[in-house]
Sequence to fold (352 residues):
Amino acid sequence: MSNIKAFCARKGVQPSAKRYFVDAMGSMALGLFATLLIGTIFETLGTYTHWALLTEIAGYAKGCTGAALGVAIGYTLQAPPLVLLSAAVAGMMGNGVGATFVLDGAEKALTAGPAGAFVVTIVAVELGKLVSKETPVDILATPVTTILSGALVAKAVCPAIAYGMYWLGYFVNTATELQPLLMGVLVSVVVGVILTLPISSAAICAMIGITGLAGGAATAGCCAQMVGFAVISFRENKWSGLVAQGLGTSMLQMGNIVKNPRIWIPATLASAITGPLSTLVFRLECTGVSAGMGTCGLVGPLGVLKDMDFSPSAWLGVGVVCIVVPAVLSLLFAEILRKMGWIKNGDMKLEM
Fold:
């Protein structure tokens, strides 16, 4: 047993929750951003400009989603070159394999999507790493092992993943439609917290296929975290911190949150208010990866505007829910906590 552990360690195969659910899942967001999200942006531009080239680019970009996910995960797991390139195939299979189910009396074809790509690629890459450079025919053995193991895992687990992700997304989306107040709070707070944690909220939203009012609430929660931390830490981090957190990520504050968890309260309370404001008042909608991006590159607000056809109410809702209200509420809550002594000057200082 010790020899096996030593061999796995030498090959860089060291299973852990952090490697898979923090590092690998975090890299998925980059893969999704570079393909599915950018493809959606090109598609939107193509629709409104009637420029066929943009629509064509969108098709190619979105079609590469699975491959990009495979490469992103493989890169994070430090896969050797042959394993990394083969991971593109594993990612495509994981993303695209599924099954046809009878739902509401009709047949519906479901694919495992990003969740399938995540599971399949991790297994394929880790097995490929074990074989890499261990035989005289590495040029054949490594890609065969990586791709074949990925195919077998995809066929074995992706139908179940597709079914499970469909129902999880269905539950969240339907529950939000039926209980917009309660679910508006829950979805906004949970997804917003996930965004600030070293976990990919964008990947999770894409996995479950969040959409509609639930997607709008998720966007509201993510924006509340990013805008909230950007404004309440302005006295410590000035304009560079405002941009880094407001257009980058609130994850930058994780080190400070560990030191003083109370600094998380203002933005989280703000998200508990902006969520139902989104679902009940402005009825904001968003889909998939965009819903988990917040104000990072303004992807979340742009996703809302696209899903709502850039209507005047969407513009108003985005301005109020995603920017103004979370900024004002977070500042208000933060000042109360500062007067209580729960937050002190320097608690949110970033090393930049």
About this structure: The first helix runs from residue 2 to 10. The two ends are 45 Å apart (CA to CA).
